[in-house]
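Write out this protein's structure.
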Amino acid sequence: MATWSNFNLQNSASPLMEQILMINLFFNKYINRFLLDGQMIELIWTIIPTITLIFIALPSLRLLYLLDELNNPLITLKSIGHQWYWSYEYSDFNDVSFDSYMINYNKSDINNFRLLDVDNRIILPMNNQIRIMVTATDVIHSWTIPSLGVKIDANPGRLNQTNLFINRPGIFFGQCSEICGANHSFMPIMIESISIKN
C-alpha cells in the first residue's frame, strides 16, 4: 500500500514482488562512498542548459519585435468593443465608421449563419498588410478571428494593435472570446476579404 512520503517500492503483495524486494535489498547500495559531492557535474548541468536557453531566446526576442513592426499598412481598421456589439472605423478615410450588430436568426432564411452573421461586415482587401487597432469602451473584450490567427484583447483606455495579411478571398467569422457579460456570446465578428481590383 502506498503511503505519504514513500520514496521506495510499495509493500509487496505477491511472491514475485517479495523476491524483487529481497534482491533489491541484498544487491543495492544505498550510499555511494565514491560520490560524496559532484561540483563539476552540477556546474556542467547548470551551464549547458543556460547556454541553450540563451541561444533560443536571442532569435525569439528578435522575431517577437519584428512581428510587432508594421512599416506601411494599406488600411488601418480601428475596432471598438461595446457591450454587446462592435464599432469599426476606417481611419485612412474621412469619417467612415459603423456599428456591427448580430442579425436575429430567422429559420426561413437559410443564407444566414446562426449567431455569426452581422448587419455590417468588415470589408478588407486581400494580399495587403492591414493594421488592426483594438480598444473597448466599457469592459474587457477580445477581438478574435481563429481562421486568420488573430486574437487581440480590447481593454478600456488602452489601444492594442496587430497586423494581418489575408491571402485569399472569403468570409471569416469570429467572436468576442473574453467573458464580457450576459450577452458575451452574441457579439460576432465578420470579415469579408475581397480582391482590391473589385
